[in-house]
Specification:
This protein is of the alpha+beta class. It has two domains: 5-125 and 269-277, Roll (Diaminopimelate Epimerase, Chain A, domain 1); 128-262, Roll (Diaminopimelate Epimerase, Chain A, domain 1). It contains four helices and 17 strands. It has helices at residues 32-40, 78-92, 167-175, 215-228, and strands at residues 5-13, 16-22, 50-55, 62-68, 73-74, 100-106, 109-116, 119-123, 128-138, 141-149, 153-158, 186-194, 197-204, 209-211, 234-241, 247-255, 258-277. Strands 1-2-3-4-6-7-8-17 form an eight-stranded mixed barrel. A hairpin with a 2-residue loop joins strand 6 and strand 7. The termini are close together.
Length: 278
């Protein structure tokens, strides 16, 4: 049987890397979940944290579906949405001149994106489900965990000495913890640098390991950090240093204990295009 060719583009945002394909290419009979596992494999595929499938939308400029490296489909992905925005903008406007606003349909809702060169800023869905005291005990130690959904669920933990945290081991245990069942959660370890800068390391559900960055994780961490501060009734801006060393910017409005209008901003790169045989 002659292998089928799937044309793809590789993109990177903040350290998160994604393979982008258009749904018009028709996925193999085994489906998109199987394709995601194959093409995201770092030894036998192109290698990526996830597969972005772009489709036509009746509600927005483009529809984005995100499949994790394990084949599971996620509701949203912040850095994935930023990659999709740049990819779509370059194909709808090849010159790339000037700022472009567009809407991206996701399972979590409509994401607004602003593209200016390689800088892409997206407005996330409104944070929900904030819980400041989630009881989690790992290795006999009780951890103070904050739970919030910024498009997908996140558990946020503040730590000291973030470079020495065993993210893969502890993150995996929290990801499957009973209070987050059955879907599980992403896990963000956060260390404050100063009043408007934090470092974040994330264990990503679906990748099932630490990644170099996570957009919704950066947003979740910044929002929870903002809720712990005394600043209220004004716009907030946080710098989030990712595991990959890049800095993402998170903007949000805060009124008392309510967070709204969350934006995520950073550079996006298209690294190469190729053909994958299935």
């Amino acid at each position: 049987m002659t292998p089928r060719k799937i044309e793809f583009t590789k993109t990177v945002a903040g350290g998160n890397d994604f393979v982008v394909i258009k749904s018009s290419l028709r996925p193999p009979a085994s489906g998109l979940r199987s394709l995601a596992k194959e093409i995201c494999d770092r030894k036998f595929g192109a290698g990526a944290d996830g597969l972005l499938v772009l489709e036509k939308s009746k509600r927005a400029d483009v529809k984005m579906r995100i499949f994790n490296a394990d084949g599971s489909e996620a509701e949203m992905c912040g850095n994935g949405a930023r990659c999709a925005a740049l990819y779509h903008s370059l194909r709808s406007r090849p010159s790339g001149r000037g700022a472009l606003m567009l809407n991206i349909e996701t399972k979590a809702g409509i994401i607004v994106a602003k593209v200016l060169g390689e800088n892409v800023k997206i407005k996330l869905t409104e944070p929900r489900g904030y819980q400041p005291q989630v009881a989690v005990e790992i290795n006999g130690r009780e951890l103070k965990v904050y739970s919030i959904n910024t498009g997908v669920p996140h558990a946020v933990i503040f730590v000291e000495g973030i470079e020495h945290i065993d993210v893969s081991n502890i993150g995996r245990q929290i990801r499957y913890y009973e209070c987050f069942a059955p879907a599980g959660t992403n896990v963000d370890f956060v260390e404050a640098v100063d009043s408007d800068t934090i470092k974040v390391r994330t264990y990503e559900r679906g990748v099932e390991d630490e990644t170099l960055a996570c957009g919704t994780g950066a947003a979740a961490s910044a929002v929870v950090y903002g809720l712990q501060s005394d600043a209220s009734g004004r716009k907030n801006k946080m710098n989030v240093i990712t595991r990959g060393g890049e800095t993402l910017k998170v903007y949000f409005d805060r009124d008392s204990d309510k967070i709204s209008t969350v934006w995520l901003e950073g550079k996006v790169k298209i690294t190469y295009s190729g053909v994958f045989y299935v």
